[in-house]
Specification:
The structure holds two protein chains of two kinds. Chain A is mostly beta strands. In chain A, about 0% of the residues lie in helices and about 45% in strands. Chain A is built from no helices and eleven strands. In chain A, strands 2, 4, 5, 6, 9, 10 and 11 form a seven-stranded mixed β-sheet that branches. In chain A, strands 1-3-8-7 form a four-stranded antiparallel β-sheet, with no helix packed on it. Chain A is globular and about 40 Å long. The relative contact order of chain A is 0.33. The mean pLDDT of chain A is about 95. By secondary structure, chain B is an all-beta fold. In chain B, the strands form two sheets. In chain B, strands 2, 4, 5, 9, 10 and 11 form a six-stranded mixed β-sheet that branches. The model of chain B has no long low-confidence stretch (mean pLDDT about 95). The chains are: A mainly beta, B mainly beta. Chains A and B meet through strand 4, strand 5, strand 9 and strand 10 of A and strand 4, strand 5, strand 9 and strand 10 of B.
Chain lengths: ~120, ~110
């Protein structure tokens, strides 16, 4: 399909382990976003990429979280030394330009449900 | 100042009824207010959006009402259908960080047949 895809759909890991979550944005979209959605809450912004660079990583909760987008397309969110509190659905979104507002809709993927035991 | 407060947390409506979800914000720099619909196991999808220069926007059975002075906006779903059962999120973003969506906490809507 032409939408945003995320893999894996589910990830169960043990406390202290390292995980990588992958996002494939819509082809041609220069802007890519990661959000985190805890149970019963709205998505919370983590990081925004414009092309290959992280334009705003102010939402990353601490230095255990890191994201890359080396070729300006696929992005990987990396979490080191996972903690139980990291359990959530991690959503990726992409948009055409990153200019925001009504001219630049963010399209979301289905998310990766991360469970840290 | 970055919060968007949403109510109610859950809502049950009979088929054919009107569903109303309310949101309030503090940051006057917000200038774009979308509503997203999310089904279980899926990502949020844009439903309808409004800018503060208009007081109402209608698309089919969905209407956003916007009150700039009160810093409130609401989603009205007319003739609610069982297929509308989903979680609805209001959101906002603004000129200072136009790419960053600030979401409300969500409203779980159940439309009974």
């Amino acid at each position: 399909g032409a939408g945003v895809s995320q893999t894996p759909s589910n990830k169960v890991t043990e406390k202290g382990k390292y995980v990588e979550l992958r996002c494939d944005p819509i082809s041609g979209h220069t802007a890519l976003y990661w959000y985190r959605q805890s149970l019963g809450q709205g998505p919370e912004f983590l990081i925004y990429f414009q092309g290959t660079g992280a334009a705003d990583d102010s939402g990353l909760p601490n230095d255990r979280f890191f994201a890359v987008r080396p070729e300006g397309s696929v992005s990987t969110l990396k979490i080191q030394r996972t903690e139980r509190g990291d359990s959530a659905v991690y959503l990726c979104a992409s948009s055409f330009s990153g200019q925001g507002g009504g001219t630049d809709t963010q399209y979301f993927g289905p998310g990766t449900r991360l469970t840290v035991l | 100042q970055q919060q968007v407060k949403q109510s109610p947390q859950s809502l049950i409506v009979q088929k054919g009824g009107i569903s109303i979800i309310n949101c309030a914000y503090e940051n006057t720099a917000f200038d774009y207010f979308p509503w997203y619909q999310q089904f279980p196991g899926k990502g949020p999808a844009l439903l309808i959006a409004i800018r503060p220069d208009v007081s109402e926007k209608k698309e089919g059975r969905f209407t956003i009402s916007f009150n700039k002075s009160a810093k409130q906006f609401s989603l009205h779903i007319m003739d609610s259908q069982p297929g509308d059962s989903a979680t609805y999120f209001c959101a906002a973003n603004g000129m200072d960080s136009s790419y960053k969506l600030i979401f409300g906490s969500g409203t779980r809507l159940l439309v009974r047949p």
